[in-house]
Amino acid sequence: MPRLAISPEFTRELSTLARPVRRDAVVAVRRFLGNSPSAPHPERVRNSRDHRVTTLRLADRHRAVALRQGDTYWLITVLPDAAAWSYAQRHRFEVNPAIGVIETWDAEALERVEPALRRSAQRSKRRLFAQFCDTDLLEIGVDRQLLRLLRLMTTESHFEALEPLLPESQFAPLAALARGGTLTEAWRELDACRSSEPGVVDTADLAAALRRSPHLAAFAADRDELDRIMALPHWCTFLYPPQHTYANWAGYDEPVLVTGGAGTGKTIIALHRAAHLARAGAGAIMLVTFSQGLATELSARLDLIIEDEVERKRVEVGNVDRLAHRIVAEAEGRPPALVGAGDLATLWEEAAGSRFGAAFLLREWEQVILAQNLRTLEEYQTASRPGRSVELSPESRTVVWEAVRHVVDRLRESGRRTLLQLASEAAALLGQSTGDLLGQEAPGREPYRHIVVDEAQDLHPAQWRLLRAAVPVAPDDLFIVGDPHQRMFDTRVALSNVGIPARRFQLKISYRLPREILSWGVRLRGGGPADGLVDGIADLYGFRAVRNGTRPTVLGYVSPEAEIAGLISHVSEWMEEGVPTQDIAVAARTAELVKAARTALRDAGITVKVTMLHGMKGLEFRRVAVIGVADGIVPAPDALTPASEDPTARAHDLQRERGLLYVACTRAGELLYVSYSGRASPFLPG
């Protein structure tokens, strides 16, 4: 029987075929794996650039392109006959000699580039890679056939133009050198392209190279595994090297923090890390995310990754609020009562005076007092107030403390609490004895052996203290993923300040976003550094995409009615182009706009996801429409602190509103449409 590996491109192209053709192709691949007499036979390709390339006729006028070595077959793609023959003739395949991964080369396209490079080289004596000898370049895995092109390059722009034609394991280290970096920096970039230690690399061993390339190949040992690979979403099976490495590392001796921009696969890493820990079977696991809605989504995704029922039951998926609620309820013997937003606002208005407004007091309580778990006026008098620009004298702090005590006392009298109070009390209930409770029945306590945290940037210090208390300090205790640039709430806490000194890894490549949406989104976000999760600040330097796409469409309309009509027109056009409705989302800043869009779409017979900007968090779609991005709506006026009250808080509010729009816009993996009526939001890039 053949050893069969499937590429993600093969399953992607397979899904686009007409249903009868797709059915016949699947049957043919099953027969080939089973070595059936009726299975398709490999056919040699004339004038190919790689003698191992072959094709398999899978259906009427459609065939697979495969790479063959002995009994190992790698199904690369499936195309109409003419396109398949062209693909097979055009490409060659190599094993990177430094890290042992498989590389796909469009040899024909590179050959067409060479004459232009030669003409340019004749006009300049400068050479981009002149300071590195051939031996240096070969040691970092550079392909021998690429060397002659590199020796012709005179500017960095020459090299950047080749990016779409180069495997990432070639481009990344060479890009470091082109920017003026050292061979050590090039090796660092190359290391990010591997998913495991290669050992001794045999460039003639195709099967070993494919196993080192989990983002490009998945082996199917039997029909069930084959069907699973072809049916499941790609993220279930194919992980890019950094994703695979961080998710499947044998063990971490300390808490781990993985940060990365939109589309880098942080949630995918969290899911696969939870699955990895579940397979290890060392104890109960909690996968934590921002909201219960996202928790439901993650739970469904985890069901796809973990087939074994026993392993799946080891992972609980939820959010911190529900964890806190359960711990307090079990300790007190009844569900705790929560205060509503309206009632809480009324209490703060009662507490406000001529010196401090309700909004100021609420932020001081949440961002200073609850954040630092301050229990007495004396503690508050000496506490630092990071992020709060209004200086407070000891007398002023006393006034603030009394106002806060008024609200807290009123809440206690009514038997109600806020969610952050609940988190603080749950952390106190767990205390420091969690490690002694594993495997025991302990009412009021919910210890876990491992906790995996998604969307970490929006957790409050009180919630972090709860998570720290809910798992013992031990190897593989906390695995955290997040992005300070996608923060939706003003929670700026370094993990080290809440007892979690995490080892940090950073993701630099967006696999979801095309370059055009990424660059537009970074300009929208502001591109500047952000604080939170790590000590100091995190920047977007080096964050990039690996594929080209379509520039975002930004349209202005004369009226809200015309804008809604434009939305209907664009979504209808997408559906006519064959985009499934589940791959389309519409988002807006206000509930009124969401209601108007949902009603208009429903009247037009269109059912797609329509939500507020907050609801886009953690999701992804092929095409996204963000409407109502107008001045006076984005940023939302009632979400901004008056500059006269606290200019720093207002600046934070503006960045939060930018982050909210940035998150919604970067959910689009293929096409982004942004609209407004009247005057555009000041956030939109010019």
TrEMBL record:
PROSITE patterns xrefs: UVRD_HELICASE_ATP_BIND (PS51198)
Record-listed ATP binding positions: 260-267
The entry's keywords: ATP-binding, Helicase, Hydrolase, Isomerase, Nucleotide-binding
A Pfam family reported for this protein in Swiss-Prot or TrEMBL: UvrD-helicase
InterPro entries: DNA_helicase_UvrD-like_C (IPR014017), DNA_helicase_UvrD/REP (IPR000212), P-loop_NTPase (IPR027417), UvrD-like_ATP-bd (IPR014016)
Catalyzed reactions: ATP + H2O = ADP + phosphate + H(+); Couples ATP hydrolysis with the unwinding of duplex DNA by translocating in the 3'-5' direction
Molecular function GO terms recorded: 3'-5' DNA helicase activity; ATP binding; DNA binding; hydrolase activity
Broad enzyme group: isomerase
Protein's UniProt keywords contain Nucleotide-binding: yes
Single Gene Ontology BP annotation: recombinational repair
EC number: 5.6.2.4
Domain annotation UvrD-like helicase ATP-binding: ranges: 239-520
PANTHER family linked: DNA 3'-5' HELICASE (PTHR11070:SF45), UVRD / RECB / PCRA DNA HELICASE FAMILY MEMBER (PTHR11070)
Protein's name according to its UniProt entry: DNA 3'-5' helicase
Natural source organism: Planotetraspora mira
